Amino acid sequence: MELFALFSTAFLVGLSGALMPGPLLTVTVEESTRRGSGAGPLLVLGHGILELMVVILLLFGLGGFLTHPGVGRLVAVVGGVVLIWMGQGMIKGARAGEVQLQLTGDAPANLTVRPVWRAVATGGVISLANPYWLLWWATIGAAFLTQAARLGAAGVVSFFSGHILSDLGWYSLVAAGVAAGRRFISQRFYRYLIMACGIFLLVLGFLFILAGYRGPLSV
C-alpha cells in the first residue's frame, strides 16, 4: 500500500507540474505539427532520461549543490539564452516559410523531418534550460525522493515511475490532440502558431535571464 500511495502521489504531483504552461509544452505543440502524435513520447523520453540522471545525482547527495544560489542563477541565465536561441529560430523559420505543416505520416518533399534523436535530445535540452525544473528537483523532488528511498529501491522506482508517467500521459495527449487537428489547420495558421511558440520561448528566456540576475529563484 505504501508503494501504491507513493506512486499515486508522485503521479498527481507530477501531473500538476506538467499541466502548467512552459517550454516543454510549447515545444511539444511545435514538434507535434511536424511529426504527429509520436512527438510527445519522444520528447518525454529525453525529458525522462535527464530526470533519471538528476534522481541518481540526488541519491548520491548532490541536493545541496543544486540548491546553491550561484548554481540556480547560472542555470537561469544559460537556460534563458538557450530558450531565446530556440525561439528566434522558430520565428525566423516561420517568417521565411522554411517550416511547413506535415499533414500525413510522410514528410513533404520540401520538408526535412527532424531525426528521432533530435526530438529526444530536444526534450532533454528544453528541460535543462528551465531553471524552475532544476529548482523543483532540488527541493520538492529531493524531499519526495528522500521519502521514497526509505522504502528501498522499490520506493525509488515507484516514485520515479509515477512521476514520469504523468509527463508521458499529459504530453502524449497534447501531441495526439495537435496531430488530430493538423488536417484542419492551414499552412498560414501553422506558421503563425510556430511564431507564437517562438515568441513565448523568447519571453520565457528573457524572464529567466532577468530572474538569474535578480537573485535566487523560488518555487
UniProtKB/TrEMBL annotation:
It is a multi-pass membrane protein. The keyword Transmembrane helix applies. It is found in: Cell membrane. This is LysE type translocator. GO terms for cellular component: plasma membrane. InterPro entries: LeuE-type. The chain crosses the membrane at residues 42-62, 74-91, 116-135, 192-213. Keywords: Cell membrane, Membrane, Transmembrane, Transmembrane helix. GO terms for biological process: amino acid transport. The keyword Plastid does not apply. Pfam families: LysE.
